[in-house]
Amino acid sequence: MQFIKNDGGRAAAGYKCKDDCVTRAIAVATGLPYERVYDIINGLAQQERRGKRKKGISHAGKGVYKQTYHKLLTSMGWKWTPTMGIGTGCTVHLRAEELPKGRLIVSLSKHLCAVIDGVIHDLSNPDRGGTRCVYGYWQKP
Known about the structure:
The chain is an alpha+beta fold. It has 4 helices and 6 strands; from the N terminus they run E-H-H-H-H-E-E-E-E-E.
């Protein structure tokens, strides 16, 4: 699959984050500025509750919980399409011919990346030679 190195505007916004794949993927796929997505995610994180299993809250530059970005993307009108279920195994891989055209935010194991018309936009290529399983993807209808 083709790959373009893209930080989603992180460097231009002056951020130096380590675990910001959610923020980058959303910024690239939606076209919103990195700083705007960063602020939205951290705003949503202030509404999160901690619990026995969930010790912390989301942070745009340090890791975002699934329910936080699901809430954000749903509110923006994006639709979730699952591609893997319990007991089904891997049915869709990170390959251009197995994903629809358009702007996607693709969920992988412990990672999100943006795919635009079959081209991966991320800091490094996560496709593992076309063998990486896709759990599902977000797409704007």
